[in-house]
Amino acid sequence: MNARITDSTRPCAAMRCLALAAAACACSGAMAQSAVTLYGTVDQYLNYMHSSSGATVKSLEDGAFLRSRFGVRGTEDLGGGYTAKFQLEGGLNADNGTTNDTTRFFDRQTWVGIATPVGEFRAGRQNGPIFTRGGYVDYTTRTAGSIVNHFGVPSRFDNDLAYLSPRVGGVMVEAHVALPEVASTSNRQAVYQGAVEYADTQYRLGYMGLRAAPPAGSVVDRAVVYHNAYANWMYGKGTVYLAVVRSNNSTSTALANNAGTILGNVGGVVAGTNTDANRFYNIYQISADYLVTPALRVGALWGRINDTSNSGHDASGGSVGAYYDLSKRTMLYTVIDTLKNDTNAGFRLSGSGAVKTNFTSASDVNGQRLSGAHVGILHRF
Description:
With about 375 residues, this protein is mostly beta strands. It has helices at about 10-30, 130, 145-150, and strands spanning about 35-50, 55-60, 70-80, 80-95, 100, 110-115, 120-125, 155-165, 170-180, 190-200, 205-210, 225-235, 240-245, 280-290, 295-305, 315-325, 330-340, 370-380. The chain has a 16-stranded antiparallel beta barrel. The longest helix has 23 residues, at about 10-30.
């Protein structure tokens, strides 16, 4: 028997069609409310460095501009202006296929958080404000060729609780506290970070800082600090960058007089045993870039590291660089830089990460002039 649609059955059929359409839209909307993205970078460069001692280094390195990495990030729209977020990110050495940190898989970031109408709250290992604002410090985005980068930059810490405000009237603030999670009667060794910034279409002014104290009653009861003030003038075809840093986070190793950090750049606490915490440095840097074409950007930089204890741990240098976008994902770059260490200084050239094959004798670094030429390719996916 053939079914026949009558006038009385048409409304029911129409209702069923509308219900199916509504269900399809609801499913589509639910799917659109959450997203997970796989991303990463691969950055390889040919590295040549020469010391005034006569020693040279020739190598293939990872990450002059961006360390190679892979990651997963995701969001879920919770409604009402609230969004759940997470990020997992691990570093790798693309030149040999090894992980950047053999003790953990996601060494760069592992955090979860909620974005709200009044700001974003995060918990876990994450990049701090001093690291994320590298693009406002100089034309290199504070990587290869940057004097501030050669001194050392605190990047990320474990057990970090963070708040990032929305930008209101051009102003935003950011605050972090990384809990030490050690057996103690207090959290005195917590790492505190903060930032405040004003930005409009032509100018940007900001401050970012860090403070980490040693245990109470330490032999060297001196907190490690890192203060960085910066200013940008976006003049149309490029940007002029000014940066001033004050920090005591530099110490000697077997390699050179300034080859290490007291707090560490990627996690740690202050032990309160290192007398180098009493030596403070001021770093002054000026740089600028210019868009020759929409695809080609060039820049130059000069900076000085001033040892305020007058013990000869000073250094100065500069760089020139060029960055050419082959596409929106692939970039070619070259940087030529130099760094002159005074009598007792032992700073070394660095990229986005430490140079894997570097000078291994203190006599090739302390009091020497280091010169470098770096040519590389970066791909983002």
